[in-house]
Fold this protein.
Amino acid sequence: MMPFSFDDKDVVVFDLDDTLYKEIEYLESQYKLISIWLKEHYLMSSDVFEKMMEWYSEGRDVFRSINDFYHIDVPISTYLDIYRYQKPHITLPKDSFDVLSELKTRGVTLGLLSDGRVLTQMNKIESLKIASFFSDDMIIISESFGSEKPNEANYRYFMNVCPIKRFTYIGDNVAKDFIAANALGWRTICLKDNGCNIHRQDFRLTEEYLPQIIIGNLNELLS
């Protein structure tokens, strides 16, 4: 594998979910919040969370399964509001903190490019305590930006803010994270799924979708 070298000439843009932390932790957090809400409003048993995780692993519609199994009629929108907008209980892994800290120390400009709802993603950023690593103009969330990956505009934004720099994108979703960055001449790095990712990685896609480099742990960036 080629050695990594990052300094003040570099802009390194990270994906959020399943890159800086594992999104399954967010799902578990929000399911726990929903189970607490259900217990408070419907005096339900303590196994609600376990049932939700079981249905999720089976690929079932979890929220409709709750209503069917417990014979209640909670609007799906109520479940979704808790899931999307309640602040999660998630923590930043040590390797992510180490990498962000070291890159910042080296003078690297850090960016964050994430698809999703603004409030949802900002709640994650707040809970992970990573806002200080990124200036406000280096955090792009699709809902407020107006387009999602792999739209090239989402990546060109960083090139306009930071001209005459080298650009690297670090993500996990082969289907959408790297094709635009590859076309724009960025270095692209994929964090390989350790078995916990929400979305399955498919490296059988055509070459333009594939990352140039695959790593098993973010700490490899500091090699």
Observations:
- The mean pLDDT is 95.
